[in-house]
Design goal:
Blueprint (H helix, E strand, L loop, with lengths): L19 E5 L2 E7 L5 E6 L12 E2 L4 E7 L6 E7 L7 E3 L14 E2 L22 E4 L1 H4 L11 H5 L2 H7 L3 E4 L28 H13 L3 E6 L48 H17 L4 E4 L3 H4 L13 H17 L4 E4 L21 E3 L1 H12 L8 H9 L9 E3 L4 H4 L8 H5 L7 H16 L3 E5 L19 H5 L1 H14 L13 E8 L4 E7 L8 E6 L5 E8 L3 E8 L17 E5 L10 E7 L3 E6 L1
Parallel strand pairs: 9-10, 9-16, 10-11, 11-12, 12-13, 13-14, 14-15, 15-16
Antiparallel strand pairs: 1-2, 2-5, 3-6, 4-5, 6-7, 6-8, 17-18, 18-19, 19-24, 20-23, 21-22, 21-24, 22-23
Helix pairs in contact: 5-7, 8-9, 8-12, 12-14
């Protein structure tokens, strides 16, 4: 039944706080920012789509609002905005709409109410996190019919992910986008959820189900630009005003507007800052997401996306990031914020009191490139162990957890960026070769044993190759073909999380890369939290195509050291050699030990292989 509301003779400003469509007793309040509008109407199911029945009232500060009786949850609506700069009124979707009918459609009146149950989810300690980066549309196509995957499809694999051992999922952006597929980095309506993935309620059910498995949910958000697609749905020149060809009140309209990806929001306008802040808090509080990864923060803080370029810095962007992180830290300090800056700028992680932006962590591109270069080089002689050492030891400030480390991510494997998966880069056209398997899994070892928060990209764990396409589902048949590679990742993840209570040091802050043999391409390092049995861990990695039956390295303590992991085990692949990896005994040495360690022992290690040992 369609309800009608007669035209209100004397509408008044709404007394209800909030933006967008706000449920109130008997109806809904509507509030929109349209600074230069001369009149705004809300038009929808509740008034038979009358263009004049429900005018909003100017609040005198650029905002317009009104209460509408009979406007109910599930009904659709849009704004009709009259502008002095246009001869005809324009239709605009509510910028705060949390559900939109289609790519260019009507907003829905939605409710914040949701039954989250009685089981409160506790975010894992950040030093325990193992992140699985996932794109909703291409993760799993249940029916193999070419349609994008959705939240329910992921839940069909949630037991698989839990058994793999990861305890955090990071979703690429889930904003609505034009067409059927997208990486997600072209948001036109930052509050909307892509309809092919599910509704706003479907997403809440998804978060609840993920939490029930003990897995945290992180989300990519995009504030460095909006668009470029479908911006005229809502944000672009929302009230008809613009300057110098710009996008109007939500955007810079001068030399600061352009990025390589779309127009940049005006970080100096209080209303735009509030819009972004409201969006951040919506994901964290209403949807109970456990953390946010901010896309391309370098383009928030600098006009040209440059580091150490003060002439073109954006102080408004920097202060916005400070404000957002201060808000989050004051309200939900256990939730993690991650910057994708890729410039190695440690000020992103410094506290705002010291002038920093106060992000909890940032993507460690230095680690990625150093490790990738060492693995992809076709010649053993070209592998630089000192660069690998620097990658293992590098951190931002003093806290190891201020970097996210990885050997693949969505950007570096995407076909749209002309990139390929690590096994493909190692042995092009033969990504299932012995060389590709052996060296790509060394990347997994270093990611899951080095200091930092480890992240893997979906499909790494069963040797996905070629390029990743956002419109092509992952080939899950690889899981049966390369089940051993999956088991290798599972073993590493469990050791990283101290599953068996004998590798606690992999979660610790401390590292000592004590052995660097750039001639024979062997590196070894010591990880620990507090030290002692079950805590101290030694990792040995052989980057050469040569086996060593008795290779001497230092150890931090005397006694028996047990092999907890040998990447050459035949259980991981029938073509692996099952070589070496024996239990060893370390004895005291004199002060002249070459590794500057108090003890020494021998290990056996296969070509392109790694060992993890502990007491």
């Amino acid at each position: 039944m369609v309800l009608t509301t007669p035209k209100t003779s004397n509408p008044v400003i709404s007394s209800h706080p909030g933006m967008g469509a706000i449920q109130i007793p008997g109806g809904a309040a509507f509030r929109v920012w349209a600074k230069f509008a001369t009149q705004v109407y809300v038009v929808g199911d509740f008034n038979n789509w009358s263009k004049t029945a429900n005018p909003l009232v100017s609040e005198g500060n650029g905002y317009w609002s009104v209460d509408v009786n009979g406007a109910l949850e599930g009904q659709q609506y849009r704004y009709l905005i009259h502008s002095p700069f246009l001869s005809e009124p324009i239709w605009r979707t509510d910028p705060y709409a949390k559900r939109v009918e289609n790519d260019r459609g009507n907003g829905y009146i939605t409710s914040k109410e949701f039954d989250w149950g009685t089981n409160y989810f506790h975010m894992p300690s950040w030093n325990e996190l193992v992140i699985y980066e996932l794109h909703v549309g291409s993760f799993y196509d249940l029916n193999n019919d070419g349609t994008p995957g959705n939240f329910d499809d992921i839940l069909k694999k949630i037991d698989y992910l839990q058994e793999l051992g990861i305890n955090a999922i990071e979703l690429l952006p889930i904003y609505g986008f034009p067409g059927k597929t997208s990486l997600g980095y072209n948001p036109a309506l930052p509050f909307d959820i892509e309809s092919s993935y599910g509704t706003n309620t479907d997403f809440k059910n998804f978060v609840k189900a993920v939490h029930a498995k003990g897995i945290a949910l992180l989300l990519d958000v995009v504030y460095n630009h909006w668009g470029p697609d479908d911006l005229d749905t809502a944000l672009w020149r929302i009230d008809g005003w613009s300057h110098s060809g710009g996008g109007g009140i939500y955007f810079y309209n001068d030399w600061r507007r352009n990025t390589a990806f779309g127009d940049r929001p005006d970080f100096g306008r209080p209303e735009v800052r509030q819009y972004i802040r409201d969006n951040v808090l919506m994901w964290l509080e209403e949807y109970q997401v456990d953390g946010l990864r901010f896309d391309s923060t370098v383009n928030i803080r600098n006009v040209y996306g440059n580091n150490n370029d003060p002439a073109h810095d954006l102080p408004d962007g920097w202060s916005l990031m400070q404000w957002l992180n201060n808000e989050i830290n004051s309200r939900q300090p256990w939730k993690i914020t991650i910057a994708e800056d890729l410039q190695g700028n440690e000020w992103l992680n410094f506290d705002t009191g010291a002038g920093g932006a106060s992000f909890d962590s940032q993507w460690g591109s230095f680690f990625y490139w150093a490790i990738r270069n060492a693995l992809v080089n076709p010649s053993d002689s070209g592998r630089d162990m000192y660069s690998v050492k620097d990658a293992i030891e590098q951190r931002f400030g003093t806290n190891a957890l201020t970097r996210i480390i990885y050997s693949e991510n969505h950007d570096e494997v995407a076909e749209i960026n002309h990139k390929v998966r690590l096994p493909e880069a190692i042995d092009p056209g033969r990504a299932d070769s012995w060389f590709a398997k052996k060296r790509s899994t060394l990347g997994a070892v270093l990611t899951l044993t080095s200091p930092g928060i480890p992240m893997i990209f979906m499909g790494q764990e069963f040797l996905s190759w070629g390029s990743w396409h956002d419109n092509v589902p992952m080939d899950w048949s690889n899981l049966s073909k390369f089940g051993g590679i999956h088991d290798l990742y599972q073993s590493l993840i469990r050791l990283r999380r101290n599953w068996y209570n004998n590798t606690r040091g992999l979660q610790g802050q401390h590292v000592n890369v004590f052995h660097v043999n750039n001639n024979d391409k062997v590196i070894a390092f010591h990880r620990w939290e507090n030290g002692g049995a079950g805590d101290d861990v030694v990792v040995v990695v052989n980057f050469s195509n040569r086996a060593y039956s008795s290779y001497s390295i230092g150890f931090p303590h005397p006694g028996t050291w047990w092999v907890r992991f040998n990447s050459d085990w035949k259980g991981y692949d029938t073509y692996f050699g099952n070589f070496g990896g024996y239990t060893t005994t370390a004895g005291q040495t004199d002060s002249g030990d070459l590794d500057h360690m108090p003890c020494r022992g021998n290990v056996g290690i296969a070509p392109y292989s790694a060992l993890i040992l502990s007491q």
